[in-house]
Design a protein that fits this description.
Pfam family, one: EmrE
Order of helices and strands: HHHHHHEEEHHHHHHHHEE
Shape: globular
Structural class: mainly alpha
Number of helices: 14
Strand order of the largest sheet: 3-5-4
Helix content: over 70%
InterPro entries: EmrE (IPR032713)
Strand content: 5-15%
Keywords: Membrane, Transmembrane, Transmembrane helix
Distance between the termini: 21 Å
Protein name: Multidrug resistance efflux transporter family protein
Radius of gyration: 19 Å
Length: about 325
């Protein structure tokens, strides 16, 4: 259960992303600076942590070993994850983005056949291609049903364009984040700790953020002081604390696709934290009784998902589906 609790802690700090990004957009800040400043600001904090732990040299050795993979999967896991989320914040409120983001629960489950997991058999530990857990997928659908109920009333107030531009980018991000994270776990094979891996992926994706910053400087002008401060808060809370916690939780269940999906499912709590944050920070109205019902379904689905992740499963290697 420890990875689950760590995942919930990560969800709390990740929720700052949705609230503060929406706050920056409402204050007139550009999504370009919201995205790029987060990762630029993350580097000094992570660099100090890794240097103090005397792990920077090992990180450089690891990155040189397979630099192309680092660049590709960091671009996917960080670039195609966060830039679309910030873009969506320009068109939709934080609660809708946080709710749509929970599709990543199913996205992660659907990605399982692309990876191998470790299984203990009579003749030792072997690698078996991951399968789609039907039980876990069922619990994920309960979570998503709760989220859909939560958003039902508010979504009626949004235009079709806002829904399209606020939802499609988040769907892209929902696949990019677990894909990039899992691929980097494959590349590292447990040789790096979460601080090293987050710093490495941030450095590998830095060319993207510098180019995006240059584009923002030309098109939008420099960021305001208020946006810079809020981007710094996002960098510390979501970029450093939440990402390190989440990577630590996923590292603890590396090699078990079912438990990995359960850890990823803890991120469903983000929608609750984001809703609370919007109420207190952005003075959003309190949710209705129907929305509270949706929240309960989210919590029940996550608890069941976590429970099932600790039960043995039978795997059919021919179909790639676990029961």
């Amino acid at each position: 259960m420890k990875p689950i609790f760590i995942g919930v802690g990560a969800a709390f700090f990740f929720a700052f992303t949705f609230v503060l990004n929406r706050s920056m957009e409402l204050a007139g800040g550009s999504w370009i600076w919201s995205a790029s400043l987060r990762y630029i600001f993350m580097i000094p904090f992570l660099l100090v942590i890794v240097l103090v732990r005397r792990n920077f040299g090992a990180l450089l050795v690891e990155m040189k070993r397979n630099l192309l993979s680092w660049i590709i999967w960091s671009f996917v896991g960080f670039g195609l994850f966060y830039a679309p989320l910030c873009f969506a914040a320009a068109y939709s409120p934080g609660w809708l983005i946080a709710g749509t983001w929970q599709v990543t629960i199913i996205s992660g489950a659907l990605l399982a056949p692309l990876f191998y997991e470790l299984r203990s058999l009579d003749d030792g530990v072997v690698k078996i291609r991951g399968g789609i857990s039907l039980r876990g997928l069922g619990m994920s659908l309960i979570i998503l049903l709760g989220i859909a109920i939560m958003q039902m009333e508010q979504a009626k107030e949004l235009s079709g364009v806002a829904l399209l531009l606020g939802v499609l980018p988040v769907l892209v991000a929902s696949f990019a984040y677990p894909l990039g994270n899992r691929k980097m776990m494959e590349v590292c094979e447990g040789r790096l700790d979460p601080y090293q891996r987050v710093l490495g992926m941030t450095l590998a994706s830095l060319p993207l953020w510098l180019l995006l910053s240059l584009y923002g400087l030309i098109v939008e002008g420099p960021p305001t002081g208020q946006q810079s401060v809020q981007a710094l808060l996002v960098a510390v809370s979501s970029g450093v604390i939440a990402t390190v916690l989440f990577f630590r939780a996923t590292d603890m269940v590396r090699g078990n696709m079912q438990k990995l999906a359960a850890v990823e499912a803890t991120q469903s709590i983000e929608v609750l934290f984001a809703l609370i944050g919007e109420v207190f920070v952005l003075s959003a109205p309190l949710p209705s009784l129907l929305s509270w019902l949706g929240m309960m379904l989210v919590i029940i689905g996550m608890v069941l998902h976590s429970y099932l992740s600790n039960k043995p499963v039978a795997v059919s290697t021919s179909t790639g589906v676990s029961q």
